[in-house]
Amino acid sequence: MEIVVVLVPIMLMLVTGGIVLFNWAVKNGQYDDLEGPAHRILYDDDKDLIPDDAITGLEKTRRSASDAQDKPKTNTETDADADPSKADEAASNRGNSST
């Protein structure tokens, strides 16, 4: 019977600590988005690791379309987009590639 005198206060401290930790987690937004991390793992953000010589068919078409979207603009294209008058200069400079 003497053990009850020790176990009851320990149990009350553990319950109080659990309630305090739960309230802290709720106030700090730990339970705001429960499904987001589960869905995030399904999105593939990594670059493809398949070698180019192993790709055939539809995958080759998809990858070439993806590469075209990822390709950064050159300085000439950026200047032409900013000022329409420079677009004519850029077009004429592209035609004169003798330098």
Automatic annotation (TrEMBL):
InterPro entries attached to this UniProt entry: Cyt_oxidase_maturation_cbb3
Compositionally biased tracts (Basic and acidic residues): 59-76
Alphabetical list of Pfam families matching this protein: FixS (PF03597)
Transmembrane feature ranges: 6-26
Keywords, sorted A to Z: Membrane, Transmembrane, Transmembrane helix
Region (Disordered): 54-99
Protein name per Swiss-Prot or TrEMBL: Cytochrome oxidase maturation protein Cbb3
Organism, scientific name: Marinobacter psychrophilus
Species lineage: Bacteria, Pseudomonadati, Pseudomonadota, Gammaproteobacteria, Pseudomonadales
